[in-house]
Amino acid sequence: MTLILPRGARLVAATHNPGKAKEIAALLDGRFDVVAAGALGLPEPDETETTFVGNAVLKARKAADASGLPALADDSGLSVRALDGAPGIFSARWAGPAKDFGLAMRKVEERLDEQHAQDRFAWFTCALAVAWPDGPVVAVEGRVEGALVFPGRGEKGFGYDPIFRPEGYDTTFGEMEPAAKDAISHRALAFEKLKAALFAD
Ligand code: ITT
Fold first, then answer.
1. Given pLDDT bands bounded at 50, 70 and 90, which one contains residue 183?
2. Distance from the CA of 97 to the center of ligand 1, in angstroms?
3. Whole-structure pTM over 0.85, yes or no?
């Protein structure tokens, strides 16, 4: 068993989030023969772990074992310092069953208001895990820091992008072109680490 993923290898993208799937495809840049978890009919597993890496490993493991192919999973989220790191690993769950991120972003603002918090420091984390069927798993993590802005701005991204302005920029992730976000994001940083660990060139 080699832990290198050669160009052209078949790889399951173990995500059911279309926003993420798009970014993952752009970051992989045609390197692999990617099949979506949805296309294989793989179920969305319960995220029962307590860390981003733990949940990424859980999702990659389940997809690899169910498909018989190496699988790449992403677990990510927004952490707010004034909220002790919330929503964190619960970022998707704050949007409720309808996956309404307008609601999730309002919840963040309401919680800050309730606490009369002035501190707007926040960060995105992305854990990526690649698992081989019945084999090993490799996990990495990337992080980008910035500030929350209310009201949110921009419709180019997904999830919490409209309320997050990365450090050193005037625009939110929601206002950035996809390529600009992909150059600096938590997901891009995690991908750099994954490339160094697993990709042959
Ligand atoms: P999968 O588990 O199927 O991949 P999910 O949406 O449930 O999809 P997570 O459990 O990792 O994924 O939830 C992470 C949430 O954090 C996600 O739904 C987004 O709303 C948010 N998030 C993650 N990365 C983000 C980004 O780059 N920009 C904005 N929001 C992001």
1. very high
2. 14
3. yes
Q: How far apart are CA 22 and CA 31, in angstroms?
A: 14
Q: Does the beta carbon of 157 sit less than 6 angstroms from any atom of ligand 1? A: yes
136: three-class secondary structure by DSSP:
coil
Nearest to 143 by CA among 182, 184, 174, 105: 184
Residues contacting 91, CB < 8 A, separation 6+: 76, 77, 78, 104, 159, 160
Catalytic annotation present for 75: yes
| b/e burial code for range 3-15 (CB count within 10 A of at least 16 → b) | eebeeeeebbbbb
The residue from 75, 113, 170, 182 that is catalytic is: 75
CA atoms within 13 A on the CB side of 147: 11
Q: 31-40, 94-103, 108-117: lowest mean pLDDT where?
A: 31-40
CA distances 169 to 34, 78, 120, 154, 186, Å, are 32, 18, 15, 14, 15
- Sort 168 into a burial class: Cβ within 10 Å, 0-12 / 13-18 / 19+: exposed
Quote the CA–CA distance of 90 and 50 in Å, as a whole number: 10
Q: What is the sign of the dihedral through the CA atoms of 90, 94, 97 and 101? A: negative
